[in-house]
Amino acid sequence: MANSSKYSVLFEPVKIGPVTARNRFYQVPHCCGLGHLRPRAHAAMRAMKAEGGWAVVSTEEAELHPSSDLSPYPEQRIWDDHDIPALRLMTEAVHDNGSLAAIELVHNGNHSANLMSRAPVLAPSDMSVDLIYPKQARAMDKSDIRAFRRWHRDAALRAKRAGFDIVYVYAGHRMTLAHHFLLKEYNDRADEYGGSLENRARLMRELLEDTKEAIGDECAVALRFAVDEMMGPSGMQASAEGREVVEMLAEIPDLWDVNVSDWSNDSATTRFQPEDGYQTSYIDFVKKLTSKPVVAVGRLNSPDMMASMVRNGVVDFIGAARPSIADPFLPVKIRDDRVEEIRECIGCNICVSCDSFGIPIRCTQNPTMGEEWRRNWHPEKIQAKGRERDALVVGGGPAGLECAMQLAKRGYEVTLAEAGDQLGGRVLQEAALPGLSAWKRVADHRTYDLSQRGNVQLFLDSKLSASHIAELGISNIFVATGSSWRRDGVGRTSRAPLEIVDGASVFTPDDIMTGTVPASGPVVVYDDDQAYLAGVIAEHLAELGKKVCFVTPASMVSPWTQSTLEQTRIQTSLLQKGVDIMPHRQLRTITAGSCDVTCTFTEQAETLGCEAVVLVTERVRHTTLFDELRQAGADGFRAATLELIGDAAAPGLIADAVYSGHMAARNFEQDPSEVEAAVFRRELTALSGT
Which of 14, 111, 126, 554 is the most exposed place for a label (fewest CB within 10 A)? Predict the structure, then answer.
């Protein structure tokens, strides 16, 4: 247990103003796509973190007024007293599990376009809204500032009535008024709220003082502050103004929650920030300047690193957003000396992408994330087996591994057969590409779990046919045979195969990922998948010394990665590596030594000289075995359960494959009509007279 382990320091209580956290694990505010639209789902998700041992559990940003309307994105809201009952669902659920509840009050300034409320957009200075929408924010006058301070104070009082223990003043991510006033880029005022750093920090100081005066007797007041914009001298730096702000306000907040800005830096993917704890060098000065507790983040997965940061006086709390999503029970597993069972965050930002689309949160590593209420899924618990005794899973990729692991947890005798010589499937292939090595954790976690179970048999180099399966006699079969990338060019924008002349050198991602690369260049990488993989492959080939031209019908490289906060970094990296980028081009013909492309707007044709083309378009599902098994009944063997899962059912993200495998294991031996009827619960708006 913790008291006798090297991690006992992580389980010491810490006082935060008038409240005390039971340990040092702190789930910092993070978006989740649930917010004010799905309050029951939100409460259940946060409650799961508290059950998992996080001593402080925070909301996402909570809009405090209609002039900070982030619609259509469902963040939290505390506009008026009507929002209190929904918020109380969360605080009571968190308190029931022994944790403190925190709320991050926010006015987003020009980051909120007020598309629903249609309120005037407010900012320190006249400027465009931070959204591709032809609208501008107006510079706040003194009456606006007074009104904003009143709105913030009123929201803090509502938060207290809703049961929150910690209330935030939020000055980070270049998303909030408090931060906008602080930054020279946003603030060109000539009054007492502009000019000097002291003047630009005035509003932040006033918000802290107002909040402490209003609720500081019972609630702690936290300041979330981005100490560095990671822009060098062009922005706020931890070594200059960032440090000065901490010195200026050191003892005012009850807690400092420090990070870097903007969101793409704070939640950087492992592709561009491969090391866990990557923010430490930016924030390690803060604890030296204040007597108040400090929490920081940085995709912290390692208990050894966590304990070291506390013992070395870097932080008082281990902050987490993404690691708490990947494993809500991370603190409990450390406490109980079950470190090897932690589902480590892989930094893929699938969770972030959900906020970008305004949908409920999900996670590659944790398929139960966001499903705690609507499907009643628990990350550590699953129902016991039914009447059946055994199950066969064919395919050891992400879907097959997850399905086998959950079936084994339910108590079935599980046989997993993999045609290759390793478990992991596409996870291992993609993890070998530049920047994606952490993705191997998806396979490692599940392979380790299966290896520890006495009711699991693992077979490698075992490509099964229908006749093999009939000989095994296992009648409950889950087919996770995956997919492969197409060689004909059919993709997102072209439903007809390309004209590929004999002698043309054509490759797919499968070739590249298994080590078969063009012998010479130049190479065209054609991206009509428009997700992430083509950009990684182009980078990989460039690092191998190939001259690469990236061609895509899209307007930019890897447009889907805007949702994971990576697109700018990806395109910058390719340009720095000498990759030529040709957007708005449709590939038409591939010949030996060249390919023909046309402009997606004008259809003007061009011929590109190239020795090879890598087609990143769509995938072909591998369903041969499944189809054979469906017909096998005529030969005397009939499967009691036969289900196609993962990429073999519908190619998608690794997260989709894991989810598919998990759901199949959960639904096994459940009444099909009940499964269909209860796809998931919905939260419906209740009609009333007001």
Answer: 126
Check if 173 is active-site. yes
Q: Give the tokens for residue 468.
A: 């093999």
Question: To the nearest whole number, what is the mean pLDDT of the chain?
Answer: 96
For every residue of 166-214, DSSP letters joined together read EEEEEE-TT-SHHHHHH-TTT----STTSSSHHHHTHHHHHHHHHHHHH
Q: Is the pTM of this model over 0.85?
A: yes
- Cβ within 8 Å of residue 24, ≥6 positions away: 9, 10, 11, 12, 14, 55, 306, 310, 316, 317, 318
Tokens 């930016």 belong to 282
pLDDT of residue 689: 61
Phi then psi for 86, rounded to 5 degrees?
A: -65, -40
Neighbour tally for 496: CB within 10 Å: 8
* pLDDT for the residue 405: 98
Whose tokens are 């990729």? That residue is 397
- Residues shown for the chain: 690
Q: What is the full DSSP assignment across 400-429? A: HHHHHHHHHHHT-EEEEE-SSSSS-THHHH
Phi (first) and psi of residue 605, to 5 degrees? -95, 150
Please pick, among 26, 31, 445, 540, the residue that the annotation labels catalytic.
31
Radius of gyration of the chain measured on its C-alpha atoms:
27
Give the DSSP letter string of 137-164.
Answer: EEEP-HHHHHHHHHHHHHHHHHHHHTT-
Residues 474, 390 contacting (CB under 8 angstroms): yes
Selected catalytic residue, list 83, 130, 228, 266: 266
Q: What would the two tokens of residue 454 be?
A: 């006495």
Contact 534, 552 (CB under 8 A): yes
Point out the catalytic residue in the list 26, 73, 170, 278. Answer: 170
Local confidence band at 154 (pLDDT 50, 70, 90 cut-offs): very high
Residues paired with 366 in a beta bridge: none
Average pLDDT over residues 390-413: 98
- Residue 31 a catalytic site member: yes
CB-based contacts of 326: which residues, under 8 Å, 6+ apart? 343, 344, 345, 346, 363, 364, 365, 366, 369
Q: Using DSSP bridges, classify how beta strands 122-123 and 136-139 pair: parallel, antiparallel or unpaired.
A: parallel
Residue 595 among the catalytic residues: no
Q: Which of 107, 173, 180, 622 is catalytic?
A: 173
Q: Are 344 and 441 in contact (CB under 8 A)?
A: yes
